[in-house]
Specification:
The complex is a heterodimer of chains A (572) and B (295). Chain A contains 18 helices and 21 strands. Chain A is an alpha/beta fold and 572 residues long. Chain A is globular. Chain A starts with a strand and ends with a helix. In chain B, strands 2-1-3-4-8-7-10-9 form an eight-stranded mixed beta sheet, with helices on both faces. Chain B has a two-stranded antiparallel sheet with strand order 5-6. The longest helix of chain B has 15 residues. Classes of the chains: A alpha/beta (572), B alpha/beta (295). Chains A and B meet through strand 7, helix 7, strand 9, helix 9 and helix 10 of A and strand 1, strand 2, helix 3 and helix 11 of B. Strand 15 of chain A pairs parallel with strand 2 of chain B.
């Protein structure tokens, strides 16, 4: 690995700061490098401090990076806020007209008069994002002709803005050249087959995964940080034969996908915690009527309105237990951007196979960060469809008792087997039946079929040595930093293993028990206060676990987990 | 038009009955709604497998169980978005939402304007009895203000011992102002007109709303009261004049029965499309293109 750089740009969102990240990430990914970028947008649309952080490497990148190698600040307030994150000896790029760094700082200060260049040489503040990118690219040795080709393609659709953007790009490179500036680390071009890699956010990967899984109907309601899923599908789902409805609220969204699923279509919605709270009643109906559907929850900080633009893994309790009555469902948690694609397709497939609601737990950090990943392959997750009934002479038994608990369905308009699906307890023929025997039998049917899903292959990832002094268990977006921390511990001679269950209900109890048997101590790493997975594991396996929790709205860094590991293994 | 349909029809109302006997109280207005629906289906010669009846919770929510078509008896107040999901999933289906005044205008009241403004191509039949029947006699959003412990409603004192203090909603006025493209009012005991209204509502392409006066004989028996108050819309009534209909809705002393309003405008699935399964090759091609945009 020749290069592994963490770059942070901090400024005001109203000045196009976030798009610096978009442009730079896209260019670096196109160079064949691995990219992991995330940002902390302010809650407001215009204005407010924000930052983007891009980690770029020719080796694997699994987290956003720890100490910042290159910090670019646009003004004094952002300098004050972020200077503490800069690695000793790192590069500080600052606008000398806006910001006065401590002359005694342990860094290499490089004045970059962004606003003066904009004012005196371009005359329009709009391409400040491209100018900032150009300075970074020039300093890092990105070939100018490559950068120009990228900007031409990226902004080609806005022909009216292209001359401005190209002028900004040229001025940025000239500034670097005229001042003889360069950083000691340069970004290499990595040969790769064109089109073999894509740069996606988790939300985009989920939307594409939904299309791969054969999604036909989507209803949703705007909510940060999940909205991009609906926006993406509203542009693309029509091409695969589907339709997207923006509903009047989350209750209507959930009711609509219940209806579309009853009509035989693969259906999903995407929301965040407050929306999932409102969907709980409809999810119970889907469990009772045995309807396949998928609810994506891109978690954010809670409770209540909480931290809409920050991350947290605190909806696990709601996903697993949020219900009245005993209403089991499948809960999945993808752990990186690539996994978002495959997990969403699998979620649709499991919903069809087990005729059940499936909740897919993503989070803000996973949903809104960008990662360069191998091009997703839809052939790995071909769509499955629910088991259909064959017309017989006897009365149709929609909820026929079968060995695996899954009963063949009839679809309106296609099968001449009309029945009435109801949220009331019912017998095999879907007739309302409150008898003690029926309630017992149907309760077992609904539970057993979900319990069988524990045996689905491929929903547990294990890393590290077969025997270890410490075993970490984590879920969702905590995987990347936990894995990097475990690898760092291994370099220091510590034996640390990692288990990542991607199905959280039914809990893969056997895999977790086997893992616990193979390690001296176990800790659950998760971004919430109460230790929701830890509680779930303890309640199911009756075995105590240590806990590593972070709940300040920011994602884990590998240093966070590394410090925890160090504390545990040294005080063992 | 109706005559033409009638002569073509080969199905009989009884063919739409299910094997489940209605559980409503003897004399309930909902029997009239059910009978009129059977007749409308027969007149329209609809195939049982192509109909889905969606309901929420309440006495009226049980209606789908008594019809031999597909049915979805869901949660309280959400029949309209559920019906929308079905229609957008397969626009070939005839989708009918049914429910009471509580299901539709209390807990579910937030969905009515959106179904109406989108012009979702479904028929919404509200069985309005001015009371909560299934839970035994609490005031509903359409219970008249001031209604107290009267002979017609022996149980109302439980919730409103000093009389109902809240003003009732004007159901027709609301739906007209929401932009519904078909608005009618019928009375469960006047079958001929009710069948006609249901038939036209189902035939209407867009959101059709039929308020159906359906007295509750157990908790607020309005049979006699409504028999005195109903009268047909004036003979010269123009159903294309929404403003006039709104005026009548807010000024009528009597309860006017008939087709209040109808207009032609594109249905929701005409505007945004519906699920339209495409050949697998085309699906994969579209997916591939969407992925390539990120390369």
């Amino acid at each position: 690995m020749a290069v592994d750089l963490t770059i942070r740009v901090a400024g005001e969102n109203g000045e196009g700061l976030l798009s610096v990240g978009v442009v730079a990430s896209g260019a670096f990914a196109r160079m064949g490098l691995n990219v992991y970028s995330f940002n902390t947008p302010p809650a407001e649309i215009k204005g407010g401090a924000s930052m983007v952080q891009i980690r770029v490497s020719d080796g694997p990148v699994r987290s956003q990076g720890d100490a910042v190698d290159i910090l670019m600040v646009w003004n004094q307030a952002n300098y004050d806020r972020h200077i503490g994150s800069l690695r000793g000896g790192g590069a500080l790029l600052f606008d000398p007209g806006e910001c006065h760094p401590d002359p005694a700082g342990n860094w290499r200060g490089i004045p970059v008069p962004l606003n003066a260049i904009i004012r005196d040489q371009i005359g329009n503040s709009r391409p400040k994002n491209v100018l900032a990118f150009a300075v970074l690219a020039g300093l890092l040795g990105v070939p100018g002709d490559f950068a120009e080709a990228f900007v031409r393609q990226k902004f080609g659709k806005r022909a009216d803005l292209l001359p401005l953007n190209l002028a900004a790009l040229a001025r940025g490179y000239e500034f670097v050249r005229e001042n003889g500036l360069a950083l000691d680390r340069r970004l290499p071009m990595v040969p790769h087959e064109e089109g073999s890699r894509v740069l996606l956010t988790g939300n985009q990967a989920i939307a594409l995964g939904a299309m791969a899984g054969g999604l036909q109907f989507f209803a949703g309601y705007p909510i940060t940080p999940a909205t991009e899923v609906m926006e993406f599908l509203s542009r693309h789902l029509q091409g695969t034969g589907g339709v997207v409805v923006q509903a009047e609220d989350e209750i209507a969204s959930a009711a609509a996908i219940v209806g579309a699923s009853f009509a035989g279509r693969k259906s999903a919605t995407a929301t965040s915690g407050p929306g999932l709270s409102l969907m709980v009643e409809a999810l119970g109906l889907a469990t009772m009527q045995e309807l396949p559907l998928v609810v994506v929850d891109v978690q954010r900080g809670g409770p209540s309105t909480g931290l809409p633009t920050r991350t947290e893994q605190s909806d696990l309790d709601l996903a697993v237990y949020g219900r009245h009555g005993d209403a089991p469902r499948i809960v999945l948690a993808p752990s990186d951007v690539e996994d978002c694609f495959y997990s969403m397709a699998q979620a649709l497939n499991l919903a069809e196979k087990y005729q059940t609601p499936v909740i897919l737990l993503s989070d803000q950090h996973l949903g809104q960060r960008s990662q360069a990943i191998p091009r997703p392959d839809p052939a790995r997750v071909p769509p499955l469809s629910r088991k259909r009934s064959e017309e017989g002479t006897e009365e149709f038994r929609r909820y026929a008792l079968t060995d695996d608990g899954v009963s063949p369905v009839a679809i309106p308009g296609e099968d001449d087997l009309p029945f009435v699906g109801t949220g009331l307890e019912h017998d095999e023929r879907a007739h309302i039946d409150y008898s003690p025997r029926t309630h017992e039998v149907m309760m077992r049917k609904r539970h057993n079929k979900i319990a069988n899903a524990e045996n689905e292959p491929g929903f547990v990832r294990r890393y590290g040595p077969e025997q270890a002094e410490l075993g970490l268990i984590c879920w969702g977006s905590a995987e990347g930093p936990a894995l990097e921390a475990a690898e760092q511990a291994a370099e220091r001679g510590r034996k640390v293993a990692l288990l990542v269950p991607k199905m959280l209900w039914p809990l893969p109890e056997k895999a977790i028990a086997d893992f616990m048997d193979s390690v001296d101590r176990v800790a659950v790493v998760e971004a919430n206060h109460s230790g929701q997975l830890a509680n779930l594991i303890q309640s199911r396996l009756y075995r105590p676990v240590l806990r590593c929790n972070k709940y300040n709205g920011m994602p884990f860094t590998s240093n966070d987990v590394a410090s925890f590991i160090e504390g545990v293994v040294t005080h063992a | 038009m109706l005559e033409a349909l009638t002569t073509r029809a080969t199905r009989k109302p009884a063919e739409y009955k299910s094997n489940t006997k209605p559980t409503w109280c003897p004399g309930c207005g909902d029997y009239g709604v059910l009978a009129a629906l059977y007749k409308a289906f027969a007149q329209l010669d609809l195939d049982r497998k192509d109909i889905v009846i969606v309901s929420g919770i309440g006495c009226s929510g049980r209606l789908p169980e008594f019809v031999g078509t597909y049915g979805l008896h869901g949660v309280h107040g959400r029949a309209l978005p559920t019906a929308m999901g079905i229609k957008m999933a397969n626009p070939e289906l005839t989708v009918i939402a049914v429910g009471g005044d509580g299901d539709g205008f209390a807990i579910g009241g937030g969905h009515v304007p959106h179904a109406a403004r989108r012009n979702v191509d479904i028929t919404y039949i509200v069985m309005d009895n001015n009371i909560y029947g299934l839970t035994k006699g609490q005031p509903s959003p359409t219970t008249p203000q001031g209604m107290g412990p009267v002979k017609a409603s022996p149980s109302l004192p439980k919730m409103a011992p000093h009389g109902v203090s809240e003003a009732p909603l004007n159901m027709l006025g609301m739906v007209l102002s929401y932009g519904a493209s078909f608005v009618g009012r019928g009375f469960a005991t006047q079958q001929g007109q009710l069948v006609h209204l249901y038939t036209e509502a189902i035939r209407h392409r867009g959101f059709s709303f039929v308020q159906t006066l359906s007295p509750c004989v157990s908790f607020y028996d309005t049979n006699d009261l409504w028999k005195e108050r109903v009268e047909p819309l004036p003979e010269e009534w123009d159903p294309c004049n929404r403003g006039r209909a709104l005026e009548l809705a807010f000024t009528e002393e009597k309860m006017h029965l008939g087709l209040w309003h109808q207009e032609v405008r594109p249905a929701f699935h005409d505007e945004i499309g519906a699920v339209h399964p495409v050949p697998e090759e085309q699906r994969q091609h579209a997916l591939d293109r969407a992925i390539s945009a990120f390369a």
